[in-house]
């Protein structure tokens, strides 16, 4: 069996999030999302994670908007792996959030628990019944799940689902640094990695200023990584990140330095079991 620490590193770029971060360069419209996704792919991203926007800039889970983004990315010649959110906008109802699956992405995020999300009085609800329904729907549609965990307890649920999967196991993903979730630390990454079943790829994202140092730890331990304007507002004190492509280029330098070049989209598909 190959050593995961010698595999290429899957680099996901989260081009637009379910919240507006305050960075003026964050994509705001559907056309912006397409430009950002293609730019990230050309900079070397293996996967782009997308929260769709309408033409007018509203956050949306409408499959027509996701299909329009999907078509536009492919028409520009990019074969980047497409990952659509089922998290949607914070507070959106479950039936609205799951509609992105109708656009048939290759990968989709699947949140593995509920959490008090951020400094405001917001609870991101993901009851077990919804988690299992989404996992089943993804299996039926042939969509590879990205099990998103904001705390260690969610990783236990993700490991159970990955271990029981009849098709591709999917990828386990730990998001660090969200207020209400696990802290951005080496210890958090080590604990999470120890819960991942053998053979299941795993990824870590850290929010804000923690993104780059936690990325280095993750790559060194054999995990995969995510960056992008959903996660990173500044690249230095008072200096906004200019684009998703800028963040991808910075991550590639780190991967090369550690000795794990970034996976091509074809290599990412192989590692994720995408047919």
Defining traits:
275 residues, alpha/beta, two-stranded antiparallel sheet, 9 helices
Q: What are the secondary-structure elements, in order, as H or E?
A: EHEHEHEEEHEHEHEHEEEHH
Mean pLDDT over all positions: 95
Estimated structural class:
alpha/beta
Main sheet summary: 8 strands, parallel, barrel
In which order are the strands of the major sheet placed? 1-2-3-4-7-8-9-10
Tally of helical runs: 9
Q: Can you give the helix content as a percent range?
A: 25-40%
Beta-strand percentage range:
15-25%
Strand elements, count: 12
- From the N-terminal CA to the C-terminal CA, the straight-line distance is 21 Å
| Outline type | globular
Q: What value does the Rg take, in angstroms?
A: 17 Å
Question: Ranges with pLDDT <50 over ≥5 residues?
Answer: none
Question: Can you walk me through this structure?
Answer:
With about 280 residues, the chain is α/β, with parallel strands linked by helices. It is built from nine helices and twelve strands. The strands form three sheets. An eight-stranded parallel barrel has the order 1-2-3-4-7-8-9-10, surrounded by seven helices. A two-stranded antiparallel ribbon has the order 5-6. Strands 11-12 form a two-stranded antiparallel ribbon. Helix 2 (about 65-75) links the parallel strand 2 (about 45-50) and strand 3 (about 80-85). Helix 1 (about 30-45) crosses helix 2 (about 65-75), helix 1 (about 30-45) packs parallel to helix 8 (about 245-260) and helix 5 (about 150-165) runs parallel beside helix 6 (about 185-195). The chain is globular and about 45 Å long.
């Amino acid at each position: 069996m190959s050593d995961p620490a010698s595999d290429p590193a899957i680099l996901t770029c989260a081009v637009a999030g379910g919240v507006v971060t305050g960075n003026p360069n964050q994509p705001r419209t559907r056309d912006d999302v397409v430009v950002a996704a293609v730019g990230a792919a050309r900079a070397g991203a293996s996967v782009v994670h997308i929260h769709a926007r309408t033409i007018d800039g509203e956050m949306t889970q409408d499959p027509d908007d996701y299909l329009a983004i999907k078509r536009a990315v492919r028409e520009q010649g990019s074969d980047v792996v497409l990952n659509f959110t089922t998290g949607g906008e914070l507070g959106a109802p479950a039936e609205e959030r799951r509609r992105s699956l109708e656009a048939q992405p290759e990968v989709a995020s699947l949140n593995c628990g509920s959490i008090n999300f951020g400094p405001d009085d917001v609870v991101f609800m993901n009851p077990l019944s919804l988690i299992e329904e989404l996992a089943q729907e993804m299996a039926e549609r042939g969509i590879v799940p990205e099990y998103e965990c904001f705390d260690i307890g969610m990783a236990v649920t993700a490991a159970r689902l990955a271990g029981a999967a009849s098709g591709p196991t999917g990828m386990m993903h730990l998001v660090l640094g969200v207020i209400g979730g696990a802290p951005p630390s080496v210890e958090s990454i080590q604990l999470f990695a120890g819960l991942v079943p053998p053979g299941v790829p795993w990824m870590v994202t850290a929010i804000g200023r923690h993104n780059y140092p936690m990325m280095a730890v993750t790559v060194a331990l054999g995990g995969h990584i995510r960056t992008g304007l959903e996660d990173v507002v500044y690249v230095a004190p008072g200096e906004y990140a200019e684009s998703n492509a800028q963040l991808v280029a910075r991550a590639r330098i780190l991967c090369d330095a550690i000795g794990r070049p970034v996976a091509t989209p074809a290599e990412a598909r192989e590692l994720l079991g995408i047919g």
